[in-house]
Design a protein that fits this description.
Layout lengths: L1 E4 L10 H12 L4 E5 L2 E2 L4 E2 L2 E2 L3 H13 L10 H11 L6
Parallel strand pairs: 1-2
Antiparallel strand pairs: 2-3, 4-5
């Protein structure tokens, strides 16, 4: 499995390599945990107490909703195209 640490701007969802890693985890059926400086986003409350702020949860949901490999950034352009080809819907390859 893997853990992804999100910053306040939730940048990993806009990075091509991060999207590739998420795609591979899903394909391999491996566990995936999101955390931030406030705690776990997968389990935002512990023992009935909210650990992660509503603001961070809403920002993460918005980032997930807007996540797109088509708009993802990559520091190396050729990586972006290789990853696109790898994670593309198998039915359109």
């Amino acid at each position: 499995g893997a853990v992804m640490v999100l910053d306040e701007e939730i940048k990993p969802f806009s990075r091509m390599w991060c999207l590739f890693e998420i795609s591979r985890l899903k394909e391999l059926q491996r566990p995936f945990e999101l955390i931030c400086s406030e705690g776990s986003l997968s389990q935002p409350d512990t023992c009935g107490q909210q650990v992660v702020s509503t603001k961070m949860l809403e920002a993460t949901c918005k980032a997930l909703w807007n996540m797109s490999a088509a708009n993802a950034q990559s520091s190396v352009a050729t990586d972006k195209y290789k990853i696109w080809a790898e994670i593309a819907n198998k039915s359109i390859k």
